[in-house]
Specification:
Distance between the termini: 17 Å
Shape: globular
Largest sheet: 5 strands, antiparallel
CATH architecture: 2-Layer Sandwich
Number of strands: 5
Strand content: 25-35%
Length: 124
């Protein structure tokens, strides 16, 4: 996710196709790294979880946003990926409108992202 969002590339990745193989070195994580162009890595534990926060330089159109991805091991060779999004919406009517619109967009984009991750994991 450091190099692409893996959702709908024509929307989230400026039309460029998300990589289909691991890019050497991209798995070397450090706090503060850019993730999906608009997030900063704020916490991680290898093979367990990643947590991002909307970059402070990005206008708060979406509100203050934090996203965590957690891997939950199910059994040998199987796991579940859990994603949690926490948004502190802006005050007033714009914030209320975003509370109804953004979750629908996130649902569509995250669903595509999870389908892509599943396909890439099964591909090997």
């Amino acid at each position: 996710m450091r190099v692409a969002p893996y959702s709908y590339d024509w929307i989230d990745n400026f039309g460029r196709k998300s990589p289909q193989t691991l890019i050497p070195g991209v798995d070397q994580l450090e706090i503060g790294q850019k993730i999906m162009f608009i997030f900063d890595l704020i916490d991680f534990e290898p093979n367990k979880h990643l947590t991002f926060r909307l970059n402070k330089r990005i206008p708060k159109i979406f509100g203050d946003t934090i996203i965590s991805y957690q891997i939950i091991r199910q059994k040998h060779q199987a796991c579940r990926l859990l994603v949690k999004i926490l948004v502190n919406y802006p005050k007033g009517i714009p914030g209320v409108l975003r509370q109804f619109i953004l979750p629908l967009g996130d649902l569509v984009m995250m669903r595509r992202q999870m389908i892509n991750f599943k396909a890439l994991c099964e591909k090997g």
